[in-house]
Amino acid sequence: MGTDTGIDVEKARADTPGCARVAHLNNAGAALPPAPVIEAVAEHFALETTIGGYEAAARNAEAVEHFYGAVAGLIGARPDEIAYVENATRAWDMAFYAIPFAEGDRILTTTNEYSSNAIAYQQIAAAKGARVEVIPDDANGTLALDALEAELAKGGVRLVSLNHIPTYNGLVNPAAEVGRLCREHGVLYLLDACQSVGHLAVDVAEIGCDMLSATGRKYLRGPRGTGFLYVRREIARTLEPPFLDLTAAEWKAPDGYEIRGDARRFETWERYVAGQIGLGAAADYASALGIDAIEQRVTALAATLRRMLAERPGVTVRDRGERPSGIVTFTVDGHPPAAIQAAAQERDVNVSVAVPRAHGYDPHGLDAAVRASVHYYNNEDDLERLLAALP
């Protein structure tokens, strides 16, 4: 299978209680958490119920603070460049809406942009007079770098914004190459890494992004209701968050305030404390396994699944791009994806339905496809169980 990366898969499965119940191939939706994450969340919540929420946070202050270093270490950042946010959407929003757009500013994005982000572009375009422009794909279906470079050279670009891994088509966008071009032209770069942190080796210095948003619940295997935002130290002070509270800023009574200088200016005081501790534990778990090893195993498993599907009569793999991810999309002739999902679930196999037309700027996208997203704790039996569920 070509998936021997040094990861002890049996131990990873033993650490994952859900593996005893389901073949979980919906990691791009929400992955199964490992025991250290489950325990970290449960222990803090139990403490809250016995001594009080404020008191539990004070007692576990070191574990709360540990989150920043754990996440920073995972993505090659510094702890003061990390903010804890309740989900990836809010993290992305806090970064995007902090940018001082003006009339005529250009926002460049990709054909496969996530719809939530696209809605935000349109809102700013209407409110500020900015323009949203979509860079075409190359022959492989990936962002065309030569087209991006040509648009950057024209000037007037305030922001390049894209997702590292789209939600529905199996590709990995060339994030580092985009970063190089943005640096050359002095343009802000926002990367939606919702599907890539915990899935690929993500190094913000290598990628060259100014801001990066991510979630806990997907490939990082953290709790739902958690996420984080990376903001490069050198630009954090140039961005004013769309709303502030007493964590993000200090009130200078009676009529002034001073915003924090680090990434925590994007935080709010009230938060899911057990989730923050659990997300730190998830980052530790991924780092201990080795993110390079995780990427190799996930990529190899996905390649094996694509091959198995392609050999099946009536099945069409719908992925595109030169660099494939752990997300595999496919259709089965004569069978709606929702029916495939239901049939798989009857066999305790979890997949999801992707709706390409609901995302991205490509009007020729599929109405729907089955999305199977693998992780390192999946094994050959999980893949075989999915194939057995197909008509």
Describe this structure in words.
With 391 residues, the protein is α/β, with parallel strands linked by helices. It contains 14 helices and 15 strands. The strands form four sheets. It has a seven-stranded mixed β-sheet with strand order 2-8-7-6-5-3-4, sandwiched between helices. The mean pLDDT is 96.
Summarize the structure.
With 391 residues, this protein is an alpha/beta fold.
Highlighted features:
17% strand, Aminotrans_V_dom, aminotransferase, PyrdxlP-dep_Trfase_major, Aminotransferase class V-fold PLP-dependent enzyme, alpha/beta, single chain, globular, transaminase activity
Low-confidence stretches: none
Share of residues in strands? 15-25%
Radius of gyration equals 21 Å
Shape: globular
Total helical segments: 14
Report the mean per-residue pLDDT as an integer.
96
Helix percent band: 25-40%
Q: For the largest sheet, list the strands in their spatial order.
A: 2-8-7-6-5-3-4
Multimeric status of the protein: single chain
The main pleated sheet reads as: 7 strands, mixed
The rounded distance between the terminal residues' Cα atoms is 24 Å
Pfam families: Aminotran_5
Keywords: Aminotransferase, Pyridoxal phosphate, Transferase
Family: Belongs to the class-V pyridoxal-phosphate-dependent aminotransferase family.
Cofactor: pyridoxal 5'-phosphate
